[in-house]
Amino acid sequence: MQENKQTQWKKRIDVLNLIYKDIMSENSKNDNFDIVKYAFEELNFSYEQMKVIENYIENKDKYKMKLISLLKPTWPYSRVNNLSKSIIFCAMSEWNSIKTDKSIIIDQSIKTCKIRGVVKDKNFIHAAIDKLLI
Question: pLDDT of 91-122, one tens digit each?
Fold first, then answer.
């Protein structure tokens, strides 16, 4: 029997997709979405993925405030693309929960933004992650 092995990048994308879904559910005021339950029961996340998701849930307000502190007064948080927010929050959560090397997180985040179609935000994402992962 062959094991279903996902690449680390694929696991990051799965976590990113769930964080994006959470951000979108906040925007639609959907209070019925339980991200941890969904990750565990529906997506069958690995231990590391669950640690990242749990870190995101516990710290998302703090992460939001840190991101806001980097923004210029002329560019409010509401103007930041939701996928870009998700990439940044995913990076922060992975860094703080499973201590992945900063250069790997930045590289994978830039790869993700290129593939997912937010190329125009790649410099912003890179700079934000570089400043926030301390």
Answer: 999 999 999 999 999 999 999 988 887 788 89
